[in-house]
From TrEMBL:
SUPFAM superfamilies linked to this entry: Nucleotide cyclase
Reactions catalysed: 2 GTP = 3',3'-c-di-GMP + 2 diphosphate
Family annotation (PROSITE patterns): GGDEF
GO molecular function list: diguanylate cyclase activity
Cofactor(s) for this UniProt protein: Mg(2+)
UniProt KW Transport keyword: no
Lineage, broadest ranks: Bacteria, Pseudomonadati, Pseudomonadota, Gammaproteobacteria, Pseudomonadales
Protein name: diguanylate cyclase
Organism listed in the record: Stutzerimonas kirkiae
Length: 400
């Protein structure tokens, strides 16, 4: 059974971008495991494409009304024109009032509205065209064109980077709308034609789902390459500042704690000088893995540059942060090429306790305390004590 699952996973991975890692395949199924940066960039892309789609519909929807005027009689044309006007106004509102803010809830709302507007228009127009209308010739041909709107919408899903779950939900809504339109015209429904159209719509849903998932796979690979440090595999400085800004905004909005720890590996330059850069890279990767193995799931570890790391600890006060750091360091940071243990100098700062006005000030404070730990003898932790001010604590003999 395990071999069959592995074989299936391997074949699925071969259909996707070669840069996508096997552990990332689960992210194609549901957005639950997506990183903050991926959520933010995907939300921005979705909202921008929603606005592009809304602009096209806002322009094309009223223009098609001129064709209705030419081929339909007055009562029917007026009903369709009213529906078109309402749909056009809704698209304009969607275009004007939605802006990309990197929030997935906003993205979900925007894409829901985008597809709800033409879906409601389709149901209304389908009802108007089926209410005792006896259309022939050119008017019948134009009326048939209205039946293709669900197909256009379903194909439009292909421009969005969506997970399997999201694609199924949106496709199901369009299929239900098609079924509802058939139910409302039950008495005059042409069953063979309706069944063929419904089956074709389901096939298009499958193709667009594959296109959306493929887009998401490329996006996951590209975001990982853009935000990850190529040597250690952890987040890079550029993406780290973005995450820190998001965590700061969340902490300020909820009035919760946020701790930062600047970690600088001691005497790391001597490893490169004595043993070569390859040995230094191995020691850096080993140290990174030791830290990752002992972090909480909510913490974020970034490579700030060289042998410097930044640890972001949301919902963590100063005391909890000190305990977390001591627990992390008690497991060790790996070894130097000569077998000696790697040590670090650490500066710790916390949003509420230190009263920082923005994350730049918090970052600068943690950085300054890290340099105090280095100048104080290394293998030290520097933080703000409530009674004694900034103080150093030797990491060689952690307090009970």
């Amino acid at each position: 059974m395990t071999e069959s699952c592995d074989s299936f996973t391997h074949r699925l991975a071969s259909l996707l971008p070669s840069e996508l890692e096997r552990t990332e395949l689960i992210q194609l199924l549901s957005p639950r495991g997506h990183s903050l940066i991926l959520k933010r960039r995907r939300a921005t892309l979705i909202v921008n494409r929603v606005r592009m789609f809304a602009f096209l519909f806002a322009v094309l929807t009223p223009l098609w009304g001129l064709i209705d005027l030419a081929v339909f009689s007055y009562p029917l044309w007026m009903g369709l024109a009213t529906c078109r006007l309402l749909a056009c106004l809704a698209f304009i509102c969607l275009l004007l009032f939605y802006r990309p803010r990197g929030n997935m809830l906003d993205a979900y709302r925007s894409i829901t509205l985008l597809f709800a507007i033409p879906t409601l228009f389709y149901i209304a127009s389908h009802t108007l065209l089926g209410e005792g209308q006896h259309l022939t010739g050119l008017s019948a041909m134009v009326a048939t064109g209205y039946a293709f709107l669900p197909f256009v919408l379903m194909a439009g899903l292909a421009i969005f980077p969506l997970t399997v779950k999201e694609s199924l939900i949106l496709a199901s809504v369009l299929l239900l709308a098609q079924g509802l339109a058939g139910y409302l015209n039950w008495a005059t429904l042409n069953w063979p034609s309706f069944a063929g159209g419904f089956w074709l719509l389901a096939l298009i849903a499958g193709v667009t789902a594959l296109a959306s998932i493929s887009q998401l796979a490329f996006m996951i690979a590209l975001v990982r390459q853009a935000v990850r440090d190529p040597l250690t595999g952890i987040l890079s400085r550029g993406s780290g500042e973005e995450i820190l800004g998001l965590q700061w905004s969340t902490a300020r909005r909820r009035n919760t704690c946020l701790s930062l720890a600047f970690i600088d590996l001691d005497h790391f330059k001597t490893i490169n000088d004595r043993f070569g850069h390859e040995a230094g890279d191995r020691a850096l990767c080993e140290s990174t893995q030791h830290m990752l193995d002992n972090l909480r799931g909510s913490d974020s570890l970034l490579r700030w540059g060289g042998e410097e790391f930044l640890l972001i600890m949301p919902d963590t006060d100063l005391q909890q942060a000190r305990q977390a750091l001591q627990r992390l360091l008690s497991k060790g940071l790996g070894h130097r090429p000569d077998g000696q243990p790697l040590t670090a100098s650490i500066g710790l700062a916390e949003r509420c306790f230190d009263g920082c006005g923005d994350y730049h000030a918090l970052l600068e404070l943690a950085d300054r305390r890290m340099y105090m730990a280095k100048s104080g003898g290394r293998n030290q932790l520097c933080w703000q004590d409530e009674r004694e001010g900034e103080r150093l604590f030797s990491l060689s003999h952690p307090r009970p």
